[in-house]
Amino acid sequence: MTTKVLMVCLGNICRSPTAHGIMETLIEKEGLSADIIVDSAGTGDWHIGKAPDPRTQQAAKRRGYDLSHLRARQVTVADLDDYDWVIAMDRQNRQNLLNMASDANRDRITLLLEHAGQIDAEVPDPYYGGEQGFEQVLDMVETACAALLERIKLQRVG
Ligand code: 4NP
Prior knowledge:
- It contains five helices and four strands, in the order βαβααβαβα.
- By secondary structure, it is of the alpha/beta class.
- The chain has a four-stranded parallel beta sheet with strand order 2-1-3-4, with helices on both faces.
- α1 (15-29) packs across α5 (131-157) and α2 (54-62) crosses α5 (131-157).
- The chain binds 4-nitrophenyl phosphate (4NP).
- InterPro entries: LMW_PTPase, Ptyr_pPase, Ptyr_pPase_sf, Tyr_phospatase_low_mol_wt.
């Protein structure tokens, strides 16, 4: 059975593509690409069809992650039925997702940093800040994606 993971931020050009690329790399390294599928989306619609922000791409590339093939899309109600894990980067986006969700799929929606043991903590939006913000996103997302993958693996074996 395939497990499907959706990373969600506001624009789908900074944080969630970073999480998408990092999670995919971790899954490939563990030989689980046939078992765990990752995608990303934004709650906003401004950047639909666009590649990740150049600052996001450059920061990720320095750590060996190529995000150039990714294109932004907007999250849909159908995604919330389709994806087993819907991972929000911050509380506002989690709230937006909860507002779209039915009772049956609310439990699928969590914050990324929860999986690293940081309850209610957020991956800060780097869009309007300096280069350091993009490095901070990478640090947080690398740690939390590793923890999330361990959790998904445990859940898969039941
Ligand atoms: P993201 O960052 O949600 O991490 O992709 C943002 C990208 C664009 C905007 C806001 C946040 N924006 O307002 O256009």
